[in-house]
Specification:
single chain, alpha+beta, globular, Butyryl-Coa Dehydrogenase, subunit A, domain 1, 4-stranded antiparallel beta sheet, Butyryl-CoA Dehydrogenase, subunit A, domain 3, Butyryl-CoA Dehydrogenase, subunit A, domain 2, 3-stranded mixed beta sheet, 3 domains, 49% helix
Length: 403
Amino acid sequence: MTERSPVAHSHGTAQAPLPAASDLYALDSTFSEEERMVRDTVRKFVRERVMPIIGEHFEAGTFPRELIPEMAELGLLGMHLDGYGCAGLSAVCYGLACQELEAGDSGIRSFVSVQGSLAMFPIFAFGSEEQKQRWLPPMARGEVIGCFGLTEPDIGSDAANMRTTARRDGASYILNGTKMWITNGGIADLAVVWARTEDGVRGFLVERGTPGFTTSNIHRKLSLRASVTSELHFEDCRIPAENMLPNVRGMRGPLSCLNEARFGIAWGTVGAARSCYEAALDYAKTREQFQQPIARFQLVQQKLVIMATELVKAQLLALQLGRLKDQGTLHPVQISVAKRNNVREALHTAREARSILGANGITLEYPISRHMNNLESVFTYEGTDDIHTLIIGQAITGESAFS
């Protein structure tokens, strides 16, 4: 009796071909034509325009501003919003775009996320019609860059206790305080700033050039180097009362914006994980040690199998998240589950991939360490891993660890 291959079919029936190594569950076949078109268009943009320059920008600590008009031309800015010059695409389309952008670099995806989900979304959801008409079309065209001011130097996760204040003074508000770790802050033309008022937490639109409003960029970063990260400073900054977002009060406003951004992160980190996995797989097939490719070694295969499995799980989480959002049945806790898992596993994937490349893995010739460093920030922002753990814990136990 001959020994059968461990992969032989037990019933002798025809075996279906295995999908691509980065799509083992054949999710590509579940996407609509429009979804695949969006994904492939953004993937082509990243391959042709982002990848040739992103390593140099990361090393120099600069953001490739020259790409903004191209991203706007592709309809990526506010792409999940309807009207006002926005593309009005589905949540899954938006997620797939985030996935491909972050396969290039977290800084590129962060720019698009902040512009669309943290700056344009609150205007779209909570702004007056006049505010929408004035700001959303030029933001969609990339002519006005936005940022989102919530986090403060001494106030991170406990954002409800922010110290930035806005005091009513006639037909104006006087804004005082500091916001920190603000993506796009140094290049933003418009800041969406959350502040405490006598009426609770409110959102304000603050234009660059307003007296009392200044920004300073944060340097010497080891993560998200190809992204602008800044402090926003407000010192007796007088803004017109009509610059307040009229249709939201309290923490529901900023938290709903964060959920929009977290949705994009849950998808985007799938792209970063895939990039690391594919680089490690290709390397393992060509790198030889002991007169054979290292892909033949059991420990290397084990690492690749773990990466492939976690990639499939992250892809499935992100896809179901998008389907739920498009159906209008998405709950914020489901976003926390996906954000927490997908960032965590993308970071683990980057570390395992780096180990397969050995010393080569620490260079910018390969994307892995760049992704690994970026993911350290993604692990923390828009809700730390710990905070999302406690959000999920509260949901399943009914007990709050926050009070």
